[in-house]
Amino acid sequence: MSDNLTYLGMEDQYKKYELFFGPNHPGMNGNFSYILTVEGHTIVKAEPVPGLLHRGFEKLVEQRLWLQNISLILRICVPEPDINELVYSRIIEKLMGVEIPERAKFIRTIVLEMSRIGAFLLGFGGIGGTTGLYTAPNWTIADRDYLLDLWEWISGARVYHMFILPGGVRRDLPEGWIEKLQKTIAYLEKRLPEYDRLIYNNPLIVKRVTGLAPITQEDAIKYGITGPNLRATGVKFDARKNVPYAAYPYLDFDIPTQTGGDGFARVIQRREEFEISLNLVKQAIKLMPKGEVRAPMPNALKFRVPKGERYVRVESARGEHGFYIVSDGTEKPYRMAVRGGSYTAGLIYAKKALEGMRIEDVALWMATMDICAPDFDR
Amino acid sequence: MNQKEIIELIDNKFGIVKSNIYDEYQLSVVVKKENIFAALALMQLNDFKELSILTAVDWFDRNVFEVVYILFSYTHNQQLILKTEIERDNPEIVSVMKLWEVAETYERDVHEFFGIKFLGNPSLKPFFLHNWLDMPPMRKDFKTQQYSDKVFGKTKEEREK
Amino acid sequence: MNYKDKSKLAPLSALKYLFKDPITIRYPQEEKEGYPGGFKGVSPKYRGMHSNDLEKCIGCGSCSEICPTDAIRMVEAEDVEEKFGATKERPVIDYGRCCFCAFCVEVCTTGSLNMTRDYIHDYVSPIDKTGKDLSETISEEFIRRPDYKHEENLGWNTPDEYSWLELERVKMEELKPSERDHSFIEIVKGFSKEQATKEAQRCVSCGLCTEVCPAHMDIPEYIQSIFDADLEEGLRQLYKTNPLPEICGRICTHKCETACSIAHRGEALSIRWLKRYIADSVPLDSYKKYLGINYIKQIDKKIAIVGAGPAGLSAAYYLSLLGYKTTIFEALPKPGGMMRYGIPEYRLPYDQIDKDINFIESLGVEIKCNTRVGKDITLDELHKTHDVVYIATGLHLGRSTRIPGSDHKNVYYSTDLLREVSLGNEIPVEKKIVIIGGGNVAMDITRTLARLQNIKYGKVDITTTSLESEDIMPADREEIVEAREEGATIDPGWGPKEIEIKNGKVVGLHVVKCLSVFDEDHRFSPKFDESQKKFFAADMVVQSIGQAMDLSYISEDIKSKLTFGPRGRIKVNENFQTDLDWLFVGGDIIQGPDAIHGIANGHTTAKAIDDMLNKNK
Q: What residue ranges define each of the domains in chain C, with the CATH number in brackets?
């Protein structure tokens, strides 16, 4: 009997089997799936199957007024909605030739960095979760709640803020908000050593992520991998610094890089960027001028954007988030294409990266790459 | 290489249809359909190593599809929007998979949503849309309301059926 | 740090978390840390359920327009009172669709719609609660009209500076007082294309203006056409209901602007100037092409119109479009009526009147000037030679104050003086002038005389006094301001008592303080305080307290067949038809007095005449 099985196992068609790695797996990030062809524990072929999350944003946007879309496009990405608002608003401002008030730039910076911190905290939790260390998500998601409280205060909502608008931001900061933000930032700084001890110095995690699916610098650029994943391979490029926007040109910060581009480099890169983000918020608070928060804009119901096209990329926690928008001069966008931070990493690059990986590392790989299905399945 | 040099470079080789400098980090160049592959190859040689996105725009009134290749160069810090126009009826264009492997996904995406055929791309299978039978949905003549009425029923009674 | 260096006791450090307060709380059982200003629970700007002040809401529908999820529907409300410049519709929100973006709050024209800090927490599904079918109860529970009960728990609201509407007007350029007070050049310069587009952009297309406009002009539509830079369409929209856009674009009483929904939070749209922009921008020779008038099939019916004022011209335009042979009989040398002979040139230049009238004439309307009905031709003759007669002769007689001295030869009526100025005749201008009246006509004569004084003497000495105090003066605000800028003194709130005459010459006007003009029932019944007196010295007094009609040309025979209402007005039905089938009456002698009512009932009459003549066929 056992001889027979061994014999059968030597034939190709019985040696491999297909595994549906989708939302049924707790390590899967959102409604996305891979069909993995595995041989024993090892993946020989991976086929990404998106579509479970497809909501047709690009089509919906074409049917709504420019400002109505603000309530829609931010839903593309739940953990970090504000970047969508920013990219969209920046394209409109560029097409209309509007310069936003200085104070609005700083408020945008603070809000963006807050959302970046929030997204990193979710990412930290992800790394803990996929390695079985459930204390990490318990801590980080609870800490993220402090940021949600702050958003609730300025924008009236915890998750979908709709706070950044073409021309500036929706409201000025309420009294006492800055103090609470400073308190929260101080608290998170205090928590950092504890995270370090829990996650980044944890022998278990270090062992699991070290050497996990390293990316070469050349591959990263060729495959369009951006953001922290790119910097983990040693490329010193950050859209905040190199293609500056909001108030980043006024702030003093350095871009950290790692070498190797493996799982550990990517995780540590995020950890270091988290610290920089905390620092950026503090700087922005200090330098923020007084004044208007929104440039005069046309009536929302007769809002027209001049003819033209723009591609704008900004730095999100997962990489560079870009929109390509075409306007034909009417009240509605003519075409919008979304290029999320992990578009290529989650689809085509995954095919390459997952080959030869063990099944249990797939979820962890996704966590270290910060793959977010809505980036491509929009 | 600055923006003017980029435009000159493409113009000297292929002759550009239109070019626009949007700001210090972004410019757009329109070339003829037959030159697009060579122009992209040329730009790749000139350090435009990243294909940020490949997408299309449906200019329904002019009966053309505009295929948009957005390139980025880390050395020049420039975003180059290279575009070309193709016929809307039976749209075909050569695949750029040979230049960028990532183009496979983008082309698959555009094929699915616009129905543009990329010659040389083997994997133009359904991707995001499961069991889709209608016309490619990002085309301007695809009307969402009509589709919804057709598939899910227009009235309450029809919907419950 | 290498994990191998870690102390064996390191895991014990986890014990310190044992006594840490949890970050999460059991809200709402437990209160979160509060916000400044004593707010507990959710944030003070929370985007929760809506609240709407039904009294304040005007039902403009902007909330429904901006709603990205199509959750807001405007539904006729039974329990709200009708008011000026408001519909009876109120927003009803489907909370199954609402995404709580608060865009509706940002575009609310009145500020009545706000969001509250209330929200539905732990919603018990209706099927659990009542056992009823889900689809039934969803409409009860989730589709609701927000009213004002959440007032004390207000959340997200929109102060004016954050509104998504453009509340400030595009400033209209005008001549400076020093440039205009010597001449009759038009003061208002008109919009440029950029200015007009920018002003048109402010419109929310609610259509409340259409409701209150006497002619029901398609205001949002023509404003949209300016925004689209499609003046051809704009002109078509104008001529649908108003054949005198150049004139109306300058001197209309613009009731539309008082009803403008934007005016609740900011400045109303300059609807009048936008209309003027369309008419100004289209040259007269393109009118026929733009309006698509090629060939009109003539009908063998003749219509006589008495008086070439707004009502007469408007009726003539629409009747001639229908193919009727239309003739206007005008007593004065030129057509235009009060628009030409009552309104000074600096407000309405004569060439603009000519532009509108020339177009109407080009459609085949015959205007017989210098033909006074009753003198040159009688009404009976008109009746005999025409199928229908339309009378719109307007109010050309001045009303007297009937105070002692008002019959002196140096006491004038404003209507007479303004007519003489327009006819090009010289009028008496003394050094010191007192004008009695507080309406727009009083301002017209004040400013006309101020100019003439400036030309003749180099300085202005005019005092205008009215019964009404300044806050209830019927004249337009800007007219009063501009009159003052031009040097006239306006001293309202005095009742004229006597014009003092010494040695056969006017010396001045005695007035007493007027306490109130109307009684509780809004009837005219002025009350005076005789102890407060004032004397305005003057060589000349002008009375401008209203106009009266002159119906002496109607023969006694016809008069006996007509019914007369209060204040001598001829009784007409809703189509402006009198008791005599062939006689229609309209314009200032029925409604108004203003141009737009005349235009509106000219249009109505034209339709009614067409209906009647078609029926007789």
A: 50-162 (3.30.70.20), 177-290 (1.10.1060.10), 295-396+549-616 (3.50.50.60), 398-547 (3.50.50.60)
C interface with A, Cβ–Cβ < 8 A, is 1, 3, 22-24, 32, 35-36, 42-47, 62, 65-69, 99-103, 106-107, 115, 155-156, 162, 164-166, 200-205, 227
Mutant choice from A309, A321, A330 vs B, greatest count of B C-beta within 10 A = A309
The answer to the question of residue B154 being in a domain is no
Number of domains present in the structure of chain B = 1
pLDDT in tens, C31-71: 666 777 777 778 888 888 888 888 888 888 889 989 998 88
Neighbours of A261 (CB within 10 A): 24
C483 burial type by CB count under 10 A (0-12 exposed, 13-18 middle, 19+ buried):
buried
CATH of residue B48's domain is 3.30.460.80
* pLDDT, position A185: 92
- Residue at B69: amino acid letter: Y
Could you tell me if C576 and C590 are in contact, meaning their C-beta atoms sit under 8 angstroms apart? yes
Q: What is the pLDDT of residues A85-119, one digit of tens each?
A: 999 999 999 999 888 999 999 999 999 999 999 98
Q: Which residue of C has its CA nearest to A197?
A: C1
In contact, C218 and C201? CB cutoff 8 Å: no
Measured CB to CB, residues of chain A less than 8 Å from chain C are: 64-65, 67-72, 142-143, 145-146, 149, 152-157, 160, 162, 170-171, 174-176, 201-203, 206, 294, 296-302
Percentage of residues in chain A having pLDDT higher than 70? 97
Q: B35: domain range?
A: 3-126
Tokens representing C156?
Answer: 């997200």
Assign domain A12-375 to its CATH architecture.
Orthogonal Bundle (1.10)
Structure confidence by residue, pLDDT tens digits, C277-306: 888 888 888 888 888 887 777 888 888 888
CB contact under 8 A, A171 and C204: no
Domain boundaries, chain A: 12-375
> What's the pLDDT score for residue A107?
92
Tell me: pLDDT of C137 over 80. no
For C336-367, b/e burial (b = at least 16 CB within 10 A) is bbbbbbbbbbbbbbeebbbbbbebbbebebeb
Facing C23 at nearest CB: one of A69, A145, A171: A145
